[in-house]
Amino acid sequence: MPRQQPAEPTELFPAEPVSRKRRSAPAPHDEAPRAGKPLRVKRRTDTVTLSFRVHTSMDELLTEACEVSGHGPKGVVEEAVHNYADALGIAAELPEDDPGFFEDMPHDFSGRLDRRADGTGENPDMVMVSVRLRPITRARAWHCCVITGQNSQTTLATLLNIYFHRIGVPQKRRGDVKGKSRRSG
């Protein structure tokens, strides 16, 4: 059977090159919206990252708290910060020029070099937790550190422990060996 020719001849190289501007120009606003999957729009996030180190046992408790509360780590940390800040009497709304929005979180660098026996590296028993929080939550966490006089790692461990107790996450004793706790004396 002989091959049929197309009805209209096609050009391999058109006479006028199509410019990129004309191809990618946005449609006028009066046209109907595009059908199908909507375009992804990159938006500015209104969150800040809060990173802190916790012991692996605290990380396990955080996982349990997520299961108990139904929130992710972000939700658990936000709830814990707000509960602790409310208990300390920190205002729920802060002015925009409040130092909690732009000051660095208090840190304690005294034990940084002796994290391992050889004095180098990081403590293998500590894990990094990073959550994206609303700026007001971060500002309230900063005020918690300033009021208590503790660094951010200690304050966040304290407020998480209090929150875990409040929602009923079973606390594990440090030094438990196969269900038996060690007691001195």
Description:
The chain is mostly helical and 185 residues long. It has a domain at 48-167. It is built from 5 helices and 2 strands. The termini are far apart. The relative contact order is 0.18.
Helix and strand layout, with pairings?
Blueprint: H1 20-24, E1 48-55, H2 56-69, H3 73-88, E2 126-133, H4 135-148, H5 152-167
Antiparallel strand pairs: 1-2
Helix pairs in contact: 2-5, 3-4, 3-5
Give the overall shape, derived from the CA principal axes. extended
Low-confidence stretches: 181-185
Which strand-content bin applies to the residues? 5-15%
Structural class: mainly alpha
Q: How much helical structure, as a percent, in the residues?
A: 25-40%
Radius of gyration: 28 Å
- Strand order in the largest sheet: 1-2
Give the overall pLDDT as a whole number. 77
Distance N to C terminus = 101 Å
Beta strand count: 2
Distinctive features:
mainly alpha; single chain; 185 residues; 9% strand; 35% helix
Short description:
This protein is mainly alpha-helical. It has a domain at 48-167. It is built from 5 helices and 2 strands.
